[in-house]
Amino acid sequence: MLDTNGLPRGSPARGNASHWCPVSSQPIPTRVVLLAGPSGSGKSSLAAVTGLPVLRLDDFYKEADDPTLPLVDGSADIDWDSPRSWDADAAVAAIVELCRTGQTDVPVYDLSTSSRVGRERLDIERTPLFVAEGIFAAEIVSRCRELDVLADALCLRGRPSTTFRRRLARDLREGRKSVPFLLRRGWRLMRAERAIVARQTSLGAHPCAKPEALGRLAAAAAGRHRTPAAS
């Protein structure tokens, strides 16, 4: 969980961070840290280490029968790495509702079937900070800034070969898609990884490795917001 006097230590599961919140009868302003980065860069594991509430932005993917889903150029594969495969409006609405009320209903998405299989209530209580993580998090940096709910925006980056191995192992373990699809996607993303990080940076997410990301999250948890400036 986050040590607001320094870098976080330990690896607790996702939890409620209200124990470090100041107790007050006044409403506590809640803000979000958007955690972006290429698929397999370690966003989910980093978010879990913080002990902060986590909104999984990948749960806002569109469903497989949505006619607006884009295709990979020259292929019949759906391009799940395109922002057009994701419902940004619903994700922003959920973030704003969490900041205003401390709770919201979110979809439960099954990546293996590319469908929403239910809904669940996410309640962050009075926690003044939460993490929203996903490969499209950078796409909504400017909107969250304009709505005055943004504490920070980060883009995890690392070695493309390491990201490739981590992503493939995770996707095979979880049975997210067929093996041929995962291999095609993996090679494509490895070649494009530097461009992906560059795009997310241009959208306002600060590129960094895990240690710096943890430090910035600790600063946000302590109330030292680093809201990215408009580009």
UniProtKB/TrEMBL annotation:
Gene3D superfamilies, alphabetized: P-loop containing nucleotide triphosphate hydrolases (3.40.50.300)
Coiled coil: none
GO molecular function list: kinase activity
InterPro entries to which the protein is assigned, alphabetical: P-loop_NTPase, PRK/URK
Transmembrane segments: none
Keywords: Kinase, Transferase
Domain Phosphoribulokinase/uridine kinase: 35-174
Alphabetized SUPFAM superfamilies for the sequence: P-loop containing nucleoside triphosphate hydrolases
Annotated stretches, region: Disordered: 1-21
Name of the protein in question: Uridine kinase
Taxon lineage: Bacteria, Bacillati, Actinomycetota, Actinomycetes, Kitasatosporales
